[in-house]
Design a protein that fits this description.
By secondary structure, the protein is mainly β. The chain contains 2 helices and 10 strands, in the order βββαββββββαβ.
């Protein structure tokens, strides 16, 4: 399996913005819903939001109105635009197909996002 490759994280002040990118293999990306996950310090990895192969999106309540997921099917790439960041958004962000828990797909290294208050 070829794991996804996430990038774009960094250190930002509260209220700032970051755009994360994730390049996935065709096996992971094509015809699959893609999702972003966040693992906060000391917590389990959890869903942030997902985008269907057709472009429909879903977000957890804590990021609605602040985060936007998009995908470029020609590049096997999914993006996470994060605006108005809060300290509680701090964590390592991962992307994967949203069936990752059922299929055991490989995880990438993730990208660290740190939001200072």
């Amino acid at each position: 399996q070829v794991p996804p490759v996430e990038s774009g994280g960094g250190l930002v002040q509260a209220g700032g913005s970051l755009r994360l990118s994730c390049v996935a293999s065709e096996n992971t990306f094509v015809n699959n819903n893609m999702a972003w996950y966040r693992q906060a310090p000391g917590k389990q990895r959890a869903l942030v939001g997902r985008i269907s192969s057709g472009g429909s999106t879903y977000y957890v309540d804590s990021v609605k109105g602040r985060f936007t997921i998009s995908r470029d099917n020609a590049k096997n790439t999914v993006y996470l635009q994060m605006n108005n960041l809060k300290p509680e958004d701090t964590g390592v962000y991962y992307c994967n197909a949203d069936d990752v828990w059922a299929t055991g797909r490989a995880w990438g290294q993730g990208t660290q996002v740190t939001v200072s208050s």
